[in-house]
Amino acid sequence: MIEQIAAFFTIETIYLWINIGVIPFWLILIIFPNSKICGLLVTSVFPFFVFTAVYVYLGYYFYLSGYDFDYNFTLYLGLYDLRNLFEAEAFLIMFWTHFLAINLFCGAWIMKDSQKLFMSRYIVFIPIIITYFIGPLGLVIYWVIRMFYAKRINLLD
User: Fold this and answer.
1) What is the three-state SS of 32-84?
2) Contact 79, 10 (CB under 8 A)
3) How many whole angstroms separate alpha carbon 121 and alpha carbon 119?
4) Per-residue pLDDT tens digits for 16-58
Protein backbone atom coordinates (compact mmCIF):
# COMPACT_ATOMS: atom_id res chain seq x y z
CA MET A 1 0.00 0.00 0.00
CA ILE A 2 2.87 2.38 0.79
CA GLU A 3 4.25 1.73 -2.69
CA GLN A 4 0.91 2.73 -4.26
CA ILE A 5 0.83 5.94 -2.24
CA ALA A 6 4.43 6.71 -3.16
CA ALA A 7 3.66 6.03 -6.83
CA PHE A 8 0.77 8.50 -6.78
CA PHE A 9 2.29 11.19 -4.57
CA THR A 10 5.37 12.00 -6.57
CA ILE A 11 7.36 15.10 -5.68
CA GLU A 12 5.87 16.98 -8.62
CA THR A 13 2.33 15.99 -7.59
CA ILE A 14 2.93 17.08 -4.00
CA TYR A 15 4.33 20.38 -5.25
CA LEU A 16 1.24 21.04 -7.35
CA TRP A 17 -1.18 19.97 -4.59
CA ILE A 18 0.35 22.11 -1.86
CA ASN A 19 0.54 25.13 -4.18
CA ILE A 20 -3.08 24.76 -5.25
CA GLY A 21 -4.22 23.56 -1.83
CA VAL A 22 -2.98 26.63 0.05
CA ILE A 23 -4.94 29.05 -2.16
CA PRO A 24 -8.39 28.30 -0.62
CA PHE A 25 -6.97 28.99 2.85
CA TRP A 26 -5.69 32.38 1.71
CA LEU A 27 -8.95 33.21 -0.09
CA ILE A 28 -10.95 32.39 3.04
CA LEU A 29 -8.54 34.47 5.08
CA ILE A 30 -8.91 37.45 2.74
CA ILE A 31 -12.62 37.27 1.80
CA PHE A 32 -14.22 35.79 4.94
CA PRO A 33 -11.90 36.70 7.82
CA ASN A 34 -14.68 36.91 10.44
CA SER A 35 -16.50 33.74 9.47
CA LYS A 36 -16.64 30.51 11.45
CA ILE A 37 -15.11 28.64 8.53
CA CYS A 38 -12.07 30.91 8.73
CA GLY A 39 -11.81 30.22 12.44
CA LEU A 40 -12.15 26.47 11.95
CA LEU A 41 -10.03 26.02 8.85
CA VAL A 42 -7.49 28.81 8.56
CA THR A 43 -6.71 30.37 11.93
CA SER A 44 -6.82 27.01 13.73
CA VAL A 45 -4.18 24.30 13.69
CA PHE A 46 -5.91 22.39 10.87
CA PRO A 47 -3.77 23.63 7.93
CA PHE A 48 -0.63 23.04 9.94
CA PHE A 49 -1.63 19.44 10.61
CA VAL A 50 -1.95 19.07 6.83
CA PHE A 51 1.46 20.67 6.23
CA THR A 52 2.94 18.50 8.98
CA ALA A 53 1.51 15.37 7.38
CA VAL A 54 3.05 16.37 4.04
CA TYR A 55 6.35 17.15 5.74
CA VAL A 56 6.41 13.82 7.58
CA TYR A 57 5.52 11.96 4.39
CA LEU A 58 8.32 13.73 2.52
CA GLY A 59 10.79 12.97 5.28
CA TYR A 60 9.80 9.30 5.25
CA TYR A 61 9.88 9.17 1.45
CA PHE A 62 13.36 10.68 1.28
CA TYR A 63 14.59 8.52 4.15
CA LEU A 64 13.55 5.42 2.22
CA SER A 65 15.21 6.74 -0.94
CA GLY A 66 18.51 7.18 0.92
CA TYR A 67 18.63 10.97 1.15
CA ASP A 68 21.49 12.23 3.35
CA PHE A 69 19.76 14.51 5.86
CA ASP A 70 23.13 15.46 7.36
CA TYR A 71 23.85 17.23 4.07
CA ASN A 72 21.13 19.78 4.99
CA PHE A 73 23.43 21.27 7.62
CA THR A 74 25.79 22.50 4.91
CA LEU A 75 23.45 25.46 4.40
CA TYR A 76 25.27 27.20 7.25
CA LEU A 77 28.68 26.93 5.60
CA GLY A 78 28.19 29.55 2.92
CA LEU A 79 26.14 30.79 0.01
CA TYR A 80 27.75 28.35 -2.42
CA ASP A 81 26.78 25.42 -0.20
CA LEU A 82 23.24 26.76 0.13
CA ARG A 83 22.95 26.99 -3.65
CA ASN A 84 24.12 23.39 -3.98
CA LEU A 85 21.62 22.33 -1.35
CA PHE A 86 18.74 23.88 -3.30
CA GLU A 87 19.71 21.75 -6.27
CA ALA A 88 18.55 18.71 -4.30
CA GLU A 89 14.90 18.05 -5.06
CA ALA A 90 14.31 16.70 -1.57
CA PHE A 91 15.53 19.83 0.18
CA LEU A 92 13.72 22.10 -2.26
CA ILE A 93 10.26 20.54 -1.76
CA MET A 94 10.70 20.39 2.01
CA PHE A 95 11.78 24.03 2.03
CA TRP A 96 8.80 25.02 -0.11
CA THR A 97 6.38 23.21 2.22
CA HIS A 98 7.99 25.00 5.14
CA PHE A 99 7.73 28.36 3.33
CA LEU A 100 4.02 27.95 2.54
CA ALA A 101 3.22 26.88 6.11
CA ILE A 102 5.09 29.78 7.71
CA ASN A 103 3.52 32.37 5.40
CA LEU A 104 0.04 31.00 6.09
CA PHE A 105 0.74 31.06 9.81
CA CYS A 106 1.87 34.69 9.56
CA GLY A 107 -1.22 35.62 7.55
CA ALA A 108 -3.51 33.91 10.07
CA TRP A 109 -1.72 35.68 12.94
CA ILE A 110 -2.08 39.05 11.22
CA MET A 111 -5.80 38.47 10.74
CA LYS A 112 -6.39 37.33 14.33
CA ASP A 113 -4.34 40.20 15.73
CA SER A 114 -6.15 42.76 13.59
CA GLN A 115 -9.50 41.39 14.76
CA LYS A 116 -8.33 41.67 18.36
CA LEU A 117 -7.64 45.37 17.74
CA PHE A 118 -10.92 45.83 15.80
CA MET A 119 -9.05 46.89 12.66
CA SER A 120 -10.92 47.01 9.38
CA ARG A 121 -10.21 44.09 7.08
CA TYR A 122 -9.66 46.59 4.28
CA ILE A 123 -6.73 48.08 6.17
CA VAL A 124 -5.20 44.64 6.61
CA PHE A 125 -5.80 43.56 3.00
CA ILE A 126 -2.48 44.84 1.60
CA PRO A 127 -0.27 43.32 4.34
CA ILE A 128 -2.10 39.99 3.95
CA ILE A 129 -1.52 39.92 0.19
CA ILE A 130 2.13 40.87 0.63
CA THR A 131 2.52 38.20 3.34
CA TYR A 132 1.23 35.61 0.87
CA PHE A 133 4.06 36.43 -1.51
CA ILE A 134 6.79 37.86 0.74
CA GLY A 135 6.10 36.85 4.36
CA PRO A 136 8.50 39.06 6.32
CA LEU A 137 7.74 42.21 4.33
CA GLY A 138 4.00 41.72 4.92
CA LEU A 139 4.62 41.32 8.65
CA VAL A 140 6.63 44.55 8.80
CA ILE A 141 4.00 46.47 6.84
CA TYR A 142 1.30 45.13 9.16
CA TRP A 143 3.37 46.04 12.21
CA VAL A 144 3.74 49.64 10.95
CA ILE A 145 -0.01 49.88 10.29
CA ARG A 146 -0.73 48.31 13.66
CA MET A 147 1.59 50.76 15.37
CA PHE A 148 -0.31 53.75 13.95
CA TYR A 149 -3.70 52.15 14.40
CA ALA A 150 -3.14 51.15 18.01
CA LYS A 151 -1.28 54.44 18.69
CA ARG A 152 1.46 52.65 20.57
CA ILE A 153 4.68 50.82 19.95
CA ASN A 154 4.83 47.52 21.74
CA LEU A 155 7.57 45.15 20.71
CA LEU A 156 6.49 42.47 23.16
CA ASP A 157 2.85 41.99 22.17
Assistant:
1) CCCCHHHHHHHCCCHHHHHHHHHHHHHHHHHHHCCCCHHHHHHHHCCHHHHHH
2) no
3) 6
4) 999 999 999 999 999 988 888 888 888 888 898 999 999 898 8
Distances (CA, A) of 100 to 53, 86, 93, 109: 14, 16, 11, 14
The pLDDT score that the predictor gives to residue 72 is 75
Residue 47 CB burial class (10 angstroms; 0-12, 13-18, ≥19): buried
Taking all residues of the chain, what is their mean pLDDT, rounded to a whole number? 86
Q: For residues 125 and 30, is the Cβ–Cβ distance under 8 A?
A: yes
User: What's the maximum distance between 2 C-alpha atoms anywhere in the chain?
Assistant: 58
Torsion of CA 93, 97, 76, 134, to 10 degrees: 120
Tell me which amino acid residue 128 is.
I
- With the CA atoms of 42, 114, 144 and 101 taken in that order, what torsion angle do they form, in degrees rounded to the nearest 10? -10
Q: Which amino acid is at 115?
A: Q
Report the distance separating Cα 139 and Cα 109, nearest Å: 10
**Residues with Cβ < 8 Å from 153, sequence gap 6 or more?**
147
> Hey, what amino acid is at 97?
T
